[in-house]
Every structure is written in C-alpha cells, then in structure tokens.
Design brief:
Rossmann fold; 5-stranded antiparallel beta sheet; 9 helices; 250 residues; 5-stranded parallel beta sheet; Arc Repressor Mutant, subunit A; alpha/beta
C-alpha cells in the first residue's frame, strides 16, 4: 500500500492516475497532519512526499522517517511548484540527509517512476529466512507460521494441524508459494481452479471465507484468518508480515 503526501494540484493527480494505471493501491492526502493520522492506523510500505524547498518540509520529512522506520520514503520533485520558490533551490541532498530512501527529480518518465516503485516492492518481499523450501523437494514449504506438505496433503499453522478440503488445501498451498503477492479472483480461478470464466468469482469468495474461518479457529495464533488479506478493488494475498486485529470479509 502506498501513501501520497502532495498538495492538491494537477501533479498529484498525475501521480495518482499513474499508480492506478499500474494497479498500485494507494491513498492520497494533501498535508503531513493528515498523513500522520493514516500512518497511526495503517502500515504503508511506501510513502511518496512532495519535495518543497523549505525547512518546514525537511523537518516534517525527518519526523515522518523517524516515526515510520518500516516505510520506504520517496521524495518527488515537482518542477512547477519548485520553481515558484525563491528562498532556495531544491537540494536533493537535504532530503537524503533528512532520511528519505529515494529522490526523483522532475520532470521524470512514468516508466522510471514505476520501475523505482517496483524495485522497492521487490525488496519488500520475504527473504530466504521468511520462505524455506526443503532441499531437493518443492512439495514441502514453510512460510511464516504456515507449513504445507503436498506429500501428505497436510497443512499446519504454528504447529497445529488444519483440517482442510482439497480445494482449501490447494488454495492455501498456492498462497504460500506466492507470499505477499496480490491475485485477482480471475487469476485465482485460473491458477487454483484451472479455469477462468467470468461470473464465477463468488466461488473464490466462498472458499476464502471458509479458509479464513478455519484459520481463525486455531488457538495457537490470534486472528489467523487475517493472514489471507483482502486487497480492496483487486483481490487477495497471503500477508505474512502481520495482520490486523479485526477480521476482514471477502
């Protein structure tokens, strides 16, 4: 999930359109105060800020980075706005010293903008300590608290055995092999069910809900159903980086 902190102008709208075009989920606010309210209730893997040539902007950037150490911060220069400042020129070194992870000078190409975002997203995927497939055998996989073994058609969470139907097992196995990746309902129909017909998306919803119910009943983990996360307007993913306290519905 991406958060944009940009004053309400055409440039901010262009960024939003670009993110939507490339299927990046995002929220947009016009100031740091609004951003802080959202950041207190939700984790954003990437925060995009507008690089104002002012000490106030730098101080707020420093505070944002300090208070959200797990979020990657990109400062984006708006040529139109930056040229209106007469007190000083935009200095990207100031923003790096304030703690941002990336700085994008304007004007810039859409392709470059999206490539840098995808580069961050790849870094955000689990490392080898998060995912382990047994040597010489891809039939057994461990992802976070989940273990799936195709040989015995078994799945456990925190060591507790799950009682799953054949389709629920296949669905969970698929998610475990693609952790944190977002899939549309049609993609799941194609890859898990083996067909792709519009109008059958409700089948995915039903099985997701049943799988969540069984994960929620496990007493060794709180709100286990939250591991299967709804990505609103897109589909679902297995979120092994944590889950919210309140259950979601499909």
């Amino acid at each position: 999930m991406i958060l944009i902190i940009y004053s309400g102008n055409a440039f901010q709208q262009n960024i939003s359109r670009c993110l939507s075009k490339h299927s990046f989920l995002h929220d947009a606010v016009s100031n740091f105060q609004s951003a802080e309210s959202l950041l207190n209730t939700q984790h954003y893997s990437l925060v995009i800020i507008e690089s104002h040539a002012s000490e106030v902007c730098l101080r707020r950037t420093t505070s944002l980075v300090k208070n959200n150490p797990e979020s990657w911060v990109m400062a984006v220069e708006n040529d139109v706005i930056a040229n209106d400042f007469t007190e000083q020129a935009v200095d990207e070194a100031d923003f790096y010293e304030a703690g941002v992870d990336d700085y994008l000078c304007g004007p810039f190409a859409e392709r470059m903008f999206c490539a840098r975002i995808r580069s961050h997203m790849r870094r955000g995927l689990p490392n080898q300590e998060d995912i382990s497939v047994s040597q010489g055998c891809d039939e057994r996989i461990e992802v976070g608290p989940l273990k799936v073994d195709q040989r015995y058609h078994s799945a456990t969470i925190n060591g507790q055995l799950l009682t799953l139907t054949a389709r629920e097992f296949t669905l969970l196995d698929f998610f475990c092999r693609h952790p944190n990746q977002v899939f549309t309902r049609n993609q799941l129909l194609s890859d898990v069910w083996g067909y792709n017909h519009e109008g059958y998306e409700h089948t995915v919803n039903t099985h997701i809900n049943r799988l969540r119910t069984k994960l929620d009943k496990v007493n060794t983990i709180e709100n286990g159903g939250q591991l299967v996360q709804t990505v609103w307007g897109v589909g679902y993913r297995l979120n092994i980086n944590g889950h919210t306290a309140k259950s979601l519905s499909a």
